[in-house]
Amino acid sequence: MFKSGFKWMFLIIGTTIGAGYASGRELWEFFGHESGLAIALFMVFFVVSCIVIMTISYERKSTEYRPVLRDIVGDKLAKLYDVMIFLYLYTTTVVMLSGSGATGQAFNFPYWWGIVFIVIALIILFSKDITGLLSINQIILPILLTGLLFVLVIFTIDQDLALFSHWHEQSNWIAAFPFTALNILPLIAVLGAVGNKVESKQEIWFAGIGSGVTLGVISYIYNNSLIQIADELLLYEIPLFAILKHYPFQMVIFMSILLWFAIFTTAAAGVLGIVTRVNSYLNKPLWIIVITTLLTMIPLTTLGFSNLIGFLYPVYGVLNLYVLTRLLLYPIWNNMEKKRV
């Protein structure tokens, strides 16, 4: 149970921690000052959402997200959100490719080198079907989470930051709703594609609670660190580098590698959602669909990393609020429907 639970936990976290999150840009767009309660609410909402999505996926033994989506929003809205999920996965994967280019630029490599590198890596990953993604998540994510948490804790200690000094100021609590909603659609897509591989409800609870608590703790410490350097963030495409400038160059290299892997795992999760959906129509080898999909994305990366996040993420966060509401209320109305039968 624990081994499988960790596998799904890392899949959830890998889907969520991408270029936007790991770089700090996504957190700063939604949270910032007076957001401690918002992050606590996000943690609760995220746990409930993950457990509900995985439970439906497990019960349906789904291999792609449409059966799960129909259970959540109903048949009529499922078609609308089917299109939205596809567009979300497509555009956020473009953001990940752009993030790879931006990471390379931090070391004076050409923007296109970073994009070509991640495209080739994704093609190689999916040459082994989806088992390659599950395997790489279990290797990379523990290192990524440990490294990110280590940097943030050291920064907090070095700067003598108080983690709870502003807990009485919580005017931004409502940000929990669009932030959680933003991260729901990719989870429906990815977890909906692996329902036939989940073996028990115990691993669902383990994965849901483990991923929510992990992301909640890291988000709180990360946001608290960004608040201290708020004046400098306008100068950085990737806010994490504003924190890393206080440390030796070796640390910058190490964290940049981890940041790239965070980008890679989320891009891979997005590609998984896209190709399993497309494959339900085409029934072609996954690697062919992956190559075709990635080639259409490359021209869109010219829009820039921070511009894409600044525009797309708040829009998706608002549009997905209905899905979040349905997920949070699902245990209640699902039980009511069962009593009627």
From TrEMBL:
The lineage of its organism: Bacteria, Bacillati, Bacillota, Bacilli, Bacillales. InterPro entries: YkvI-like. This is Membrane protein YkvI. The keyword Membrane applies. The keyword Transmembrane helix applies. The chain crosses the membrane at residues 38-58, 79-97, 109-127, 139-157, 173-192, 204-222, 249-274, 286-305, 311-333. Signal peptide: none annotated. It comes from the Bacteria. Keywords: Membrane, Transmembrane, Transmembrane helix.
